[in-house]
Design goal:
Elements (H helix, E strand, L loop, with lengths): L2 E6 L8 E5 L4 E6 L2 E4 L4 E3 L5 H4 L4 E3 L5 H4 L2 H6 L6 E4 L3 H17 L8 H5 L3 E4 L4 E4 L2 E7 L7 E7 L2 E5 L17 E2 L2 E5 L9 H17 L4 E4 L5 H12 L6 E4 H10 L3 H4 L4 H9 L3 E4 L12 E4 L7 H11 L5 E4 L8 H6 L9 E4 L8 H10 E2 L3 E5 L3 H13 L3 E3 L6 E3 L4
Parallel strand pairs: 3-6, 6-7, 7-8, 12-14, 13-21, 14-22, 15-18, 15-19, 16-17, 16-18, 19-20, 22-23
Antiparallel strand pairs: 1-2, 1-24, 2-3, 4-5, 9-10, 10-11, 11-12
Bound molecules: zinc ion (ZN).
C-alpha cells in the first residue's frame, strides 16, 4: 500500500517533511526545520517515526530553504547516510542554509541540534532537471519549480501511480522559468502557502518602488532583509531596472555571488534572462559589501542584506543601525516567523526603533489563480494534499477547491494518507 506520511509542513508553514513508501521502499521528500524560538527551545523539527526514518532508501530535496532542509543533518547525526538527491545549484546552498540555522540557534544561546560535522557530511548528490532517478518501484524526475534557482518539483511514478510533489513553486519569478504541470495524476502534494488569496505581483512591485522612493527622496535609507538566494536577486533585478531615484544599492556579497553563479550555465539552471543579470553585475549603482562597516554611515542608500528574518547576519545589526532614525525604512518582503527579530520589529516590540517598518508579500508561492490554473491542466481526479500553510488558510483553500469538485485535503501533522486507492 502506497502511503504518504505527513511529518511536517502540513497545517503549518515550516519543517516540510514527507515520507512516501509502500512498505518495500521509502523515500523522504524534504526535511526542514520551523524557525521558532521560545525561552526553552529553538526550532521545531519534523515529527518523524524513527523506525521508518531508518528505512529510507533516499531523500529528495526540493530546494535549500531551511524549512525544507534544516533538519537533514539530524539524519546524519542519527547515522542515516542514504543519498540526498537535489539539483546541482541547490547542493552548495544546503550547507550554507544548515550552518546558518546552526549559527542562529547557537547565537540565541540554545542547545545545537547537530554539529557542523553533520552538516559537512551530508551525502548530497547533484541532479539535473529532466533526469530520472530510480529507487526500487519508484521513479522520480526533477523539474524546475520557479521558486528559487534550482528549486524542483518532483514527478513521481510509483508502480502505476503518478504523484506530483510541487515543492515550493511560483509562476512569478523575474528570472527563473515557471513550472509546467500537465498529464494525468493520482495525487498532488501542493504548496498552498498563500491559501486562497489572490496576490498581484505587479502591485507589489509598485508599492515597493514607491516606498523606497519616498524614503530615499527625504534623505533616508532603506533596509531590505532578504534571503541569500531567490527573493534577494528578484528584488535586485526589479530595483536595477525600475527604481528611478538615483541612489546606491548596497548588496551583501553572497547575494551577488549567487547571481553571478547563475551565469555559469544559465540554460542548465533554468535561468531565463542571463543578459539582464550580466547588466546588474556591471551596474555602477550596485555596490557590494562584505561587512556593514563597508556601508557609509552618511547619505541615503538602499541595502539588501541577509537574513530575511533579522535573527542573524548583517540584517540583525543593520536593523539597530538604521532603526534609530525615523527618516529610514525597514521593509520586509516575506514571511516572518514568530519570535524572530524581524517579527518583533514589525510588531513594534523592539525598543528604540523609530524607522518606518513595513512588510509586503513578495510572491514566491502560488496564489489562488495559479493553483486553479495548474489543477485545470492536470487530468484525472487527483487527491490534492494541501501543504505549507497554516490550518485556517489551508482549510479555506480546500473549501474553495472542493466547490470546484477537487478532492482537496488539509492533513494534520502525523497524518498518513493512503494513496493506493487514490
Ligand atoms: Zn522555499
Amino acid at each position: 500500500m502506497l502511503k504518504l506520511y505527513c511529518w511536517g509542513g502540513v497545517s503549518e508553514q515550516g519543517r516540510s517533511c514527507f515520507l512516501l513508501g509502500d512498505g518495500n521502499g521509502f523515500i523522504l521528500m524534504d526535511c526542514g526545520v520551523k524557525r521558532t524560538f521560545t525561552a526553552f527551545k529553538a526550532g521545531e523539527y519534523p515529527q518523524w517515526d524513527v523506525n521508518l526514518l531508518t528505512r529510507i532508501d533516499a531523500t529528495f530535496l526540493s530546494h535549500a530553504h531551511e524549512d525544507h532542509c534544516g533538519a537533514l543533518p539530524v539524519l546524519t547525526k542519527l547515522g542515516i547516510q542514504r543519498p540526498i538527491y537535489t539539483h546541482h545549484l541547490v547542493v552548495p546552498e544546503v550547507t550554507k542554509s544548515c550552518s546558518a540555522w546552526l549559527q542562529a540557534v547557537d547565537s540565541m544561546g540554545h542547545k545545537k541540534p547537530y554539529e557542523m560535522e553533520h552538516v559537512l557530511s551530508l551525502p548530497l548528490h547533484p541532479v539535473d532537471f529532466g533526469v530520472k532517478i530510480k529507487i526500487k518501484d519508484c521513479e522520480i524526475c526533477f523539474n524546475p519549480s520557479g521558486h528559487v534557482p534550482g528549486s524542483a518539483w518532483f514527478d513521481i511514478m510509483w508502480g502505476d501511480k503518478r504523484i506530483i510533489y510541487t515543492g515550493d513553486w511560483s509562476t512569478s519569478s523575474l528570472f527563473i522559468s515557471p513550472p509546467e504541470f500537465s498529464g494525468h495524476a493520482d495525487a498532488v502534494v501542493l504548496d498552498g502557502a498563500y491559501g486562497a488569496a489572490v496576490i498581484r505581483q505587479d502591485s507589489i512591485y509598485e508599492q515597493l518602488l514607491e516606498a523606497i522612493t519616498a524614503t530615499v527622496s527625504k534623505g533616508g535609507s532603506v533596509l531590505l532583509p532578504v534571503p541569500r538566494i531567490g527573493r534577494s536577486q528578484e528584488i535586485l533585478i526589479l530595483l536595477s531596472s525600475a527604481l528611478k531615484v538615483n541612489v546606491p544599492i548596497y548588496v551583501e556579497a553572497p547575494i551577488l555571488a549567487g547571481l553571478r553563479g547563475f551565469l555559469r550555465d544559465p540554460e542548465r539552471s533554468g535561468i531565463k534572462c542571463p543578459a539582464q543579470i550580466t547588466n546588474i553585475c556591471d551596474n555602477e549603482k550596485i555596490k557590494e559589501f562584505c561587512r556593514i562597516s563597508d556601508i557609509p554611515q552618511k547619505g541615503e542608500a538602499v541595502i539588501l542584506a541577509t537574513d530575511a528574518m533579522g535573527s542573524s547576519g548583517a540584517t540583525k545589526e543593520l536593523i539597530d543601525r538604521l532603526g534609530i532614525s525615523e527618516n529610514n525604512s525597514i521593509i520586509f518582503t516575506g514571511f516572518l516567523y514568530e519570535g524572530t527579530k524581524g517579527d518583533q520589529v514589525l510588531k513594534g516590540a523592539v525598543d528604540g526603533i523609530k524607522a518606518r517598518v513595513t512588510r509586503f508579500t513578495w510572491k514566491v508561492h502560488p496564489d489562488w489563480k495559479d493553483i486553479e490554473d495548474m489543477l485545470r491542466k492536470i487530468k484525472g481526479d487527483p487527491i490534492v494534499v494541501i501543504t505549507h500553510v497554516a490550518r485556517e488558510k489551508g482549510d479555506e483553500l480546500a473549501h474553495m477547491l472542493r466547490q470546484k469538485g477537487v478532492r482537496a485535503i488539509v492533513p494534520r501533522i502525523g497524518e498518513i494518507i493512503d494513496l493506493s486507492s487514490a
